[in-house]
Structure formats: C-alpha cells, structure tokens
Task: structure prediction
Amino acid sequence: MYKVMIVDDEIPAREILLCIINWEDTDFRIVYSASNGKDALDKYTDIKPDLIITDIQMPIIDGLDLIEEVQKINKSQKFLILSCYEDFTYAQRAMKMGVTDYLIKDLITPNDLYGILAKTQTDLDNITIKKSEIKKEHKLLNFLKENKDIALRKLIFNDISQDDCYNLIENLNLNLNGKLFVLFLIQIDNFFKYIEDENFYTNTLNEIIKNVSETIEELNIGECFYSENGEFTAIVRLSPTISEADIINECYYLAQEIRKRISLMHNISLTISVSSTFKKPFKIKKYFDEAFKLSKMKVFLGNDTIILNNTFVKNLDLDTDTLAKRINAINIAIEQNNIENLKSELTHLYDKDIRGFMQFNYLNYINSSLLDLVVRTCNRYSIAYEDIFSTSYLPIEILSTKETVEEMSGWFIEIFTKIININFNNSFKNKYSKKVADSIDYINKNLFNQSLSLTDIAENINVHKVYLCRIFKEETGENVTQYILKARIDKSKEIILSTNYKLYEISDKLGFNSPQQFSILFKKVTGITPNQFRDSYFKNL
Result:
C-alpha cells in the first residue's frame, strides 16, 4: 500500500480529493493533508509519503518550492501537481524539476486521477523491481576479482599517493606500467531494455563482463572493471608518442577492436567514450568525468559510436531564431495536413539544425518547444490526449526513455502525424454527408485490402452502389475508383518516407498488380516515379 500526502491551502480542494474517487479501490491511502508547503515539509520525514499531491500557489512555501526542497531529501519522490492555472510555464518549470504529472483543478475527473495513480503505481512498482535487479547485479559482480575492482576504483576516484599507487599496481599485478594512458568508458547501448530479459541478467551480462575483461587482457592494453547499468571503465595504456594523430589512431583502433569483438560475441552495440591523455594512472577522476561527459553526446551522435575527446568540437552558440522558424514551419505543415513537410522539418531540426551545438539545455529547449506545440495544437483542434497517447495526460516522461535525437525526432513525428490524421478525419466528417464520410473512412482503413471496390464499400455502409457512386462523385468531384487510387498513392508516399520497404513490397501491400503498374499509376498521379519521389525527398534533407 502506498502513502499519499495532500498539500493545498483550500479546504474544499482537499475535501474534493478525498471523495472524488474511492481510494479503497486503489493501492494508495491518504495519510496526511497539509495546508501549505511548510506544513508538508515539516511532516515529510516522519510520514515519508510515496506520492505528494500539491497545489502550486500557497502561502509560506508554494508547491514548486516544496518540490525543490523535498527533492533535496529524496530525488525520486513522486509528485502530482494540481493547479487552477492552465499555463504551460508551470508545467515547463515542473518538467525541469522532473515532475511529469500536472492536472487542472477545475477540469479533473475521477478517470484522470485513477489514470495518474495507476501510472504512479507502475513507476513505484518499477522502482522496487529495479532495486531487486540491482541486487542481482551485485551478485554478478562477485564473479569478478573483488580486490582488483576495488584497486581500480581507488586509483581513479581516491586521493591516493604515488607510492600507494605503484604498490597497488605491483601487489595486484595490474597491467598499468606505462608512460601514457587514456580512460575508456564502455557502455552497453539500450541497457535498460535488455534487463527486462531475465536470461540477460542471469547469463548474458555475466558473459559480457567476462568477455570485455578478457578482450582488454588479450590486447594487453591495461585494466578494466564493470561498475553498473551496463558500464565498464578501462584504464588503457598507449604507445609513448607526442603525435596527436598517432594518439587518435591508436585510441580509435583499440576502441574499434573492443566493439567488434564484443558485438560479434553477443550481438549488442557498444558506445565507447575516450578521455584525453594522462601520464600516471592515479588521481584521474577528472578524466573519468571527462569521458562520462563525452558519453552524454551519444544522444546527438547515436548509439554504436566511438567518441574521441581529441576530435570533439564544441560550439556554444544557441540558434533560437532557427528554432523559432522551424517550429513555425512545423505548425504550418500541421495546419496544411502535410505529413511530408512535417517529417522534413522535424528531421532538419534534430539533424542539421542541432549539429555543432551538442548541448543538453538546447536539446531540452527544443523538446520543451515541441511539447508546447503539441499542447497548443491539441487545444486548437479539440483533440483529446486519449486519442493520441491512450492516456488522459501528456506523458512527458516518455522523452526520458529516448537515448538519441533520432528516437526523439521519431517520437514527435509519430505524435504530430497522429494529430494530422485525427484532424483530417474530423474535417472530412464535417465536410461530407454521412454516407460519403463513412465511405472515405472505410477506404482509408482498408487500403491494404486488395479486394477493396465500390461494391465492397456499398455493402459495408448498407447503400446501393449506383447511389453511392453518384453522391460520392457529386461531393468529392471524383469517382470511387479514382479516390481509392489517390488514397493508395498517398499511403505509398508515407511508407516510402518512413520505412525501408522495397517498391515491390509496397506495391504488393497496397494491392497493385505489379511494381510496373504501381510505378505507372504513381507517376500518373504525382508526375514522378516512386524512385524519383524518394530520391528528391532525401536529397533535400
């Protein structure tokens, strides 16, 4: 059972929360109601609530300041913000503080609260599961030579003297005698997706740990240890040189060799971040921090990457004007129901526009701006979050699961495409009579049905095909066959741009007799062939 603390200076608001749902039907119980943030903060340590439901504007200490103070005590504390203010600036500040759940008091429904509680319960259950998984990981660490791991951690993180350093190296026979070193931070990509597999944790991860250590030993380049969450730290000995080019080449070769061997053994990808060089293998925490900071750049560079400090170029200018123009272009594409332009603008934004900046605050600024556009667009077209996300709220936390800008871009493309499709469907339902609107809806849902025809449509909507043919032509300006062809061509464009399907596969999926017929009809409708369409799109990116 999870404990809930309510924080609101308005008695009616606290009472509404008590009775808006049957708390007995949930795994949550209200254990305390505070009248302001100070009251809540004073009781927090004693009560230790699992969920805090708080108002924003309150006397003495407001809701956002309460969140900030509580997070100093417990960074993983779960919050739900309730406010009278439908202002995205509050959500933005809360989002920066890690709060993802935000509801408007006057609009809250029992289903909203049940939905938030269900999601929060899942998060809390997952925390418990992760704690259990961490315990399993610690058991796996026992397979390593414990003394060596402790020694390596001490060399990196502790303030150790030179004499103690070399005593450790000699007594434990560490392969760290040299005059030039770098630090490798080796990460298993998408690690938290793998840990859902019990076999990975009990068998595969242990094998990977063993194989990485063996690879470092076989290459005779230094020492490494496994820390946690799919990360290895290696102190790597280089050949003595003063040539920057030689250092880059050797680091790249060694990192590539490690990636190649481990990837072949386990069918996984690794990202390896390489620090700058140092001459003595101790008091090197700053080089670990350097490699760790570099590893964060894989959100821009993608997984399965070698990130060398020597070749990393920083650019600290934030081009907010370009972002504003791109957001406006995305908004126009949505208004025009133009999925092709939408994908092009988002791809540019996360690819060409962001290259060179590589700063998380700029990336967060982009994501925040796009989330704001999602909110405004849904409000403008009266689209419910349920229709897009299958939840009654905006699930901001999904972005935190995306490891690369490609994944982030893909998520926003998916969301905005859904908005366009929902808005388009709503618009044609208002534009046409019920019979014609039903016909169009049936056509769009059955484009992959090779037997789709006038007779099939007429039977489905229970009308004579002659009558349907007449009213369809009168209202749309096209006969049913022409409309089906154009709809299939539009669908084929979408598939061409969003998948790697071959043209013959697309032709077959959409019910064309042959790839040749598909190409001829595509050109008849668009003026160019499918291959020309694909080439022109990607040429412009």
